[in-house]
Each structure stands twice: as C-alpha cells, then as structure tokens.
Amino acid sequence: MGGTRYDFGAREDRAKKVGYASKSASEIFTQNALRKAHESMNPNGVIFREARDSEVHPNTVPIILGLDVTGSMGHIPHELIKEGLPKLMGGIIQGGVPDPALLFLGIGDHECDRYPLQVGQFESGDEELDMWLTRTYIEGGGGGNAGESYLLAWYFAAFHTKTDAFEKRGQKGLLFTVGDEPGLKTLPASAIKEIMGQGQQTYTHLELLAEAQKRYDVYHISVLHSGQAINADVEWKELLGQNCLSIEDHREIPNVIKKIICDKHKSSGSGLGTIPVSDTNDKGLDNIQML
Amino acid sequence: MKTAQIVIGLGFGDEGKGITTDFLAKQNPESIVIRFSGGQQAAHTVMIGDKKHVHSSFASGALRGLPSYYSEHCTIHPLFLYNEREELKEKNANLDLYIHPLAKVTTPFDVWHNRGNTRNIDHGTCGKGIGSTMKRNEGPYKLFAIDLIAPREMLLEKLNQIAYYYGFLNESGIDEEIQAYLEAVDKLKWNIVDYTFLLKYDNLIFEGSQGILLDMDHGVFPNVTYANTTSKNAVEICNKLKIEDVEVYYATRSYTTRHGHGWMPNEREIKLKNNEEETCVFNEYQKHLRFGDLDYDLLNYALKLDAAYSPMAKRNLVVTCMDQLEKDYEFENLTTDFDTIYGSFSPDSKDFKQITSLFQ
C-alpha cells in the first residue's frame, strides 16, 4: 500500500479504456453479480490496516471513507468511480496535501446485512484505489431497523488501523462516513465477534466515537434526499455538531471532503501532512508500541 | 455386557430418526435415550397407534415410556423444555429428563439474535437459537446446565452478561420474557448428572440430530448446522463408558429431502402418497420442504464418512417412507455391508419390515 502516486493522466486513460463512464454499476462492481463480498475485503481476522510513510509519500495523511452501501446509498460508489475519485484525490493534492492515503470501507447493517463491513487498504495510487472501490459489494440491503452500522467504521478505525501520521507525528487522520440514515446506538460484542472474528465487549455509539476520535477527526456526511434522511441529519448534528456536513447532492461528496482536508491543512499551524516544527524526537511513550 | 445403538441421519435431516429411535425403544424398554448433538430444534416424530408426538427437547423414547438424557454436546432451552413437558404429561409419556452439567443453555437473547440475523436465516436456521448459543459458548459468555442450579444470583449475573454481549443495554420490554424464562427454570426439576449416571442402564439408545450432510465439518458451508451430526460424539461417550458392543442405525428416507437453504443434488418435484402425517412443513425460517430422488453416491459418501468415526460398530440401514413412493430401489448400489436393512411402511414403527434379503 501507499507506494504509488495518484496519476490523473493514467487514471483518465484507464477510465476511458475500462469504460467507467458508460458501464452500469453492476458491470463495474463485479461482486454484485456474485452476490457476495470480495474475500480480500472480509474484515474477519484482519488485525490492522496500516497507513505508512514511504519514499514517495513521506508524510501520509490517512483518510478513511466509510460508504453506506445499502439501499439508496448504493449508487454513491458508482458516482465515485465515474468521476468522483479523481476529483477527490486531485482536489486534495492540488490543495497542498501531497500524500493522502485513502481507505474505503463498505458499511451496511450488522442486524440485517450479510456483509455489514467491507474493508479495503490505505492507498495513494489511482489504480489501487479504483481496485478497492470496485471490489466493494453493493449489497443494497439495509431495511428493517432504524439505522445503519456506521459505528462499524468507528470501531474499525479505532481498533484496527495504525498510521505513521499518528505514531510518528502525532497527527490525527480523518474519518468520514457517508449516509442517509441514523446510526445504530449499540454495537454488540456478538456482532463484532461475528464480523471481525474476535471481540468480547459491547460498545455504545458514544464510546466508539470517543475511541475513534483519539486518532481521527470524525465526520459524517449526511445526504439529505428524503424525509427520513432529514430527520437523521438532526440526530447527526446533535452528535457531531459541525462535523456533520449535510449535502443535498451526493456528487458534492468529493468537494466536501477535499475542502475539510485542505482547510485543516491551512489552519493547523504545522500543516497537515507536513512535519511539525516542534522537536520530533521527543514523543514520550506515545511512539512505543505496547504489545 | 452393555450395549448401545446409535441412530444417525444420512442426509440433511428429516430422515426418520424419531421413528427409528422408537423402533429401538420398543425392543429395549429398559434403555435410556441419549441426545448427543443439536438441541431444541429437533422435530422427531413418533407415532404409536393414535398417539403422536414431535420430540424436540425430550428424546424420542419419551412417548414409548423411556427416560431422556441430554449430553454435553447438546443445547437446551428451559422454556421450550417446560412447554414440551406439559404436552408430554397429557400423553402419559415418560417425563424423566437428565442433563449433563456441561450441556449448553439457550437464553431468550440467543433466540432473538438467531431470528434477527439475516445471515443466520440465509444459512437455514430454524430460529431456535442453537447456532447463537454454540457461538456464544465459544467466547467468555458461557451458560451451562449446571448454572441452572447454581445460586440464583450467579445465574442472574450470567444472564445479565449475555444480554450485554448481545447489546441489550437497559432496554425495556425484555424483562417480561426473562420472567417467563426464569419461571420455567423454577418450575422444572433439574436432574443434572454426568455420564456415570448412564452406567445404571444396560442398553443405551443414542438419538442423533439432523443428518450427516449438515455436519459442521462435512456439510457444504455455510448451510450447515453447528453440531457434529455423525456418530462422533456418541462413540466418544461409549468409549468413556467402555461400551464395546455398538450398532449404528443409519436412517434415510426412500427419497431425498432438505428443509432450509443450501446445496442439494437432484432436487425436483416427486409424487408422494400416504404422507398425511408429514410433520416437516412450511415454516417462516426454512420455508418449504424440498424433495429429490435418492442419491446412492451421496449415501455411500455419508456411510463411508461416518465409518471413520465409528470404525468398530456394526451397521444397519433403515429406509423410511417406503410406502410413499412406487419405485424400484437400487440398494445394491450401496458399498457398505449391513447386518440388517429395514424398511418402514407407515408413520408407526410397528410397520418396520426386515428387507435385508431383498438387497444383500
């Protein structure tokens, strides 16, 4: 992961060749025909997904994008692969953050869906990012209960990611979930065990949010395309305040994310994705892996 | 010398383990019937004259008057057990039920989890909480039969922890169900006894659950059951008790059935008669019973597989529902040698016929 650079020209050529613009979602998202998640995205047994620095990307900025792939949210990955992804990566890089590393998560419902969590890897290259995104199975389920398991993204970020940004530079990554439903309020140990293959503790959404916020700035992008989504948005605002971004057109997603990252870069004294001016050697115990 | 008979289903379940167990119970009235896999999901039908019972939490000797024993490999649900006990009481059945201390106990939380989880339903659950119970017992939130007679505070604390495990945090509306569950625990007399208890009996009848093709190690994942449905567990218990004279009775219908989702070969509509007593009917979780022709290759596979777990046993074959189909059978295609082959020609085990000479 992370050893390649985002190449717009190459991406454009490839997109044309593959026909992203003209193909239907089911032609691009090949797992949909198989009606199952890609084995490489199965989180069961995954210990960590890592965002490490490399020669090409010495100052990685870890970004997690948890996409609701249920019901009406299922067309968002299609939009991203058609034109959103270059906009997103291009925007971030042009905005002065040269080393973004993006991890896709597919989010469903742990009570109703067969694949409530699908995980990619942190990537910086266009080809790799396309691969993980198109490997995602758009299960399209959802349903029954009032909410989706966005808190699986928080759980995964909190307990199953490691980043050089945090470990070396003390910088938080950015975690975005995108959806149109309220979040579920509990993540039972039974569900975690079933999805991850391990887990003994039940978490409330507040506990998980606090855990994720230790290493990520947590955002939710609320897509307001229905009455239910507008109600859900109220809840999200109560929970995340200004970190809940509401949009009406899902095509705005790349712009919203780009803006947050670039603003953060400009406003943080040291700059996001650059080495802080302070003494980088003295980090106390934070830099030591506790095993 | 002590003897044992093991009843095993050769297919996907619903082969006639109930009627076969009753057949053996009738011949060995001083025996105890031992469940060694599965639990309260069983639906083993026994018909004796005009009396009929679908055994689930009691073993299939109860209607015939034999006591039941649940081994450590089984699950029990106190409320289901209590309800069945009430039914059996009216039918003058034997209500004696003994349970191994390490049998796993299902809670209402397991049942809710089982029914609320789409993946389980896809895998062919019957919604009685067995799979959830077995999975939960692999982690730290265990509950065993012995806990039912532990000090009440301890049982309550364990139930609290199980609620937590499933994410039920301070929710209203669950107290009532827990109340009914605890009342059932109180109303039942719990005979918690280990395997030494079985030494009192000269003959043991082991009643299998489901069928070999649903075995957790040998079925086609994920549409499998959370149990060893071969003779593995029964043979282990026989070994512990030093019983060497062991016979296996392999049950198959005269056609193939499967209740629930998942792979099954040569599925097709078949025309049946005399099947008014079929107890395996549509249910919300498994839908309709599926049918197909008898597959001799699959029978050979299951038989050879099971012999790996019971190498020293004598083997018999029971073909049930032979009155339901007009068909020439080709049992000469079977590669296992049997001591005896039986056919059943009605839902009552009195109509078992020895048909060995026809095929061997």
UniProtKB/TrEMBL annotation, chain A:
It comes from the Bacteria. This is Uncharacterized protein. It comes from Flavobacterium johnsoniae (strain ATCC 17061 / DSM 2064 / JCM 8514 / BCRC 14874 / CCUG 350202 / NBRC 14942 / NCIMB 11054 / UW101) (Cytophaga johnsonae). The lineage of its organism: Bacteria, Pseudomonadati, Bacteroidota, Flavobacteriia, Flavobacteriales.
TrEMBL record, chain B:
Binds 1 Mg(2+) ion per subunit. Mg(2+) binds at D14. Gene3D superfamilies: Adenylosuccinate Synthetase, subunit A, domain 1 (3.40.440.10), Adenylosuccinate Synthetase, subunit A, domain 2 (1.10.300.10). GO terms for biological process: 'de novo' AMP biosynthetic process; IMP metabolic process. Its EC number is 6.3.4.4. GTP binds at G13, D14, E15, G16, K17, G18, I19. GO terms for cellular component: cytoplasm. Keywords: Cytoplasm, GTP-binding, Ligase, Magnesium, Metal-binding, Nucleotide-binding, Purine biosynthesis. Its cofactor is Mg(2+). The active site is at D14, H44. InterPro entries: Adenylosuccin_syn_GTP-bd, Adenylosuccinate_synth_dom1, Adenylosuccinate_synth_dom2, Adenylosuccinate_synthetase, P-loop_NTPase. It catalyses: IMP + L-aspartate + GTP = N(6)-(1,2-dicarboxyethyl)-AMP + GDP + phosphate + 2 H(+). It is found in: Cytoplasm. Pathway: Purine metabolism; AMP biosynthesis via de novo pathway; AMP from IMP: step 1/2. GO terms for molecular function: adenylosuccinate synthase activity; GTP binding; magnesium ion binding. IMP binds at D14, E15, G16, K17, Q210, T225, K287. HAMAP family: Adenylosucc_synth. Homodimer. Belongs to the adenylosuccinate synthetase family. Plays an important role in the de novo pathway of purine nucleotide biosynthesis. Catalyzes the first committed step in the biosynthesis of AMP from IMP. This is Adenylosuccinate synthetase. It comes from Flavobacterium johnsoniae (strain ATCC 17061 / DSM 2064 / JCM 8514 / BCRC 14874 / CCUG 350202 / NBRC 14942 / NCIMB 11054 / UW101). The gene is purA.
